[in-house]
Design brief:
366 residues; alpha/beta; seven-stranded mixed sheet; four-stranded mixed sheet; 12 helices; binds 5-S-methyl-1-O-phosphono-5-thio-D-ribulose
Length: 366
């Protein structure tokens, strides 16, 4: 996607031919900056501190992190400990494990002297695949938006509610939930996106609003709790969200608050769709509520907010009493029964085990 007219991906090899560049998402929307990663430690830190975030991008960054680790030491032992360090950065997005397993499987048979070159090209393959996958999710989701548009009064925009950032910043390009939106907008279908701010880290306010704005997609920022009201008043035609881990039975684990949107959507007859690459399916888990590790982050993210000062610069201020204890659950699980469809790179299916297995049979561990 473009930033001020210049096409970008979220992760790429630097012009020096070996180090890795990422868009620094900690600095958005206040500043657009590129961070340069030169070691395993820097890649781990970038994932942990959310300089990069979003399940597919976490996966791609972990692959590049392993490549950087192999530049330091390409032995089997070093590869094992690099994978452990990367796996420990964030617990919920299964793409992290998927990317590292894919890298490890391909690299183990390669003699250490050839591993860095092979790892670098594998990272490129993973990134390119992610772009193609998201494009394909976009095409399948576009069909759904077209249908909704055709049923509306002529000229009326299709109102889409999204949560967190499942946009191009969360992937290598296109995004998952935003890919159909960008394609509909580019095809001349009028779309309007309700963007949940997504407390506590405000990925909606800071990232989704920013990237939709860069692409010229009409959108309105709302507080997280507004979704139910909007749906009761017929102001949402469909919900499109992403996922960090999807069970083989179609339960979806996404940014905390997604479940409440799905409940409100069901109560109001609003279709609730989840956009996902096959890489977010964890075939080993069938019960999302019991089987998916939910990241708990620092309570300071809840008791404080950051923003731009009128004269420039970014400040963080406290919004709760000094001694207030905060719990910070970063994800929740939306059970399959509340989801209308899963929009994947292979097509649109109902969220159930048979449909998912049929679509991905022979792939991703099936
Ligand atoms: O904590 P984050 O910002 O990494 O959470 C991201 C999300 O919850 C996204 O919705 C999810 O990764 C899907 S990304 C296409």
């Amino acid at each position: 996607m473009k930033v001020d007219g210049i096409p970008y991906r979220t992760i790429w090899l630097d012009a020096d031919g070996w180090s890795v560049n990422v868009i620094d998402q900690m600095r958005l929307p206040h500043a657009f900056a590129v961070a340069n990663l030169r070691s395993l430690a820097e890649a781990c830190e970038a994932i942990r501190t959310m300089v990069v975030r979003g399940a597919p991008l976490i996966g791609a960054t972990s692959a590049y992190g392993l490549y950087l680790a192999l530049r330091e030491d390409a032995s089997d032992d070093a590869m094992t400990s690099a994978c452990s360090a990367l796996l420990a950065t964030r617990p919920t997005a299964v793409n992290l494990r998927w990317a590292l397993e894919r890298m490890r499987e391909a690299l183990l048979p390669v003699p250490p002297a050839g591993r860095v070159d092979r790892a670098r090209s594998l990272c490129g393959e993973i990134a390119d695949e992610d772009v193609r996958t998201c494009e394909s999710i976009g095409r399948h989701g576009l069909g759904i938006i077209r249908e909704v548009h055709a049923a509306k009064d002529p000229g009326e925009p299709v109102n889409i509610l999204t949560h967190c950032n499942a946009g191009w910043l969360a992937t290598v390009d296109w995004g998952t939930a935003t890919a159909p939106v960008y394609m509909a907008h580019d095809a001349g279908i009028p779309v309007h996106v309700w963007v949940d701010e997504t407390r506590p880290r405000n990925q909606g306010a800071g990232l989704t609003a920013w990237e939709l704005g860069m692409h010229g997609v009409p959108h309105t920022l709302v507080v997280d709790n507004a979704g139910g009201h909007l749906m009761q008043h017929g102001m949402v035609d469909l919900c499109l969200v992403g996922t960090d881990r999807t069970t083989r039975t179609g339960d979806v684990c996404n940014k905390v608050g997604t479940y409440l949107k799905a409940l409100a959507a069901r109560d109001n007859g609003v279709p609730f769709h989840v956009c996902l690459p096959g890489t977010t399916i964890d075939w080993s888990v069938s019960d999302g509520v019991g089987g998916i590790p939910i990241e708990q982050r620092d309570g300071n993210e809840v008791t404080r907010v950051s923003g731009t000062l009128p004269g420039g610069g970014v400040a963080t201020v406290r919004i709760a009493p000094d001694d207030t204890r905060a719990a910070n659950y970063a994800f929740d699980v939306t059970p399959a029964r509340l989801i209308d469809s899963l929009i994947t790179e292979r097509g649109v299916v109902p969220p159930d085990e048979t449909a998912l297995a049929g679509l991905f049979r022979g792939h991703h561990g099936e």
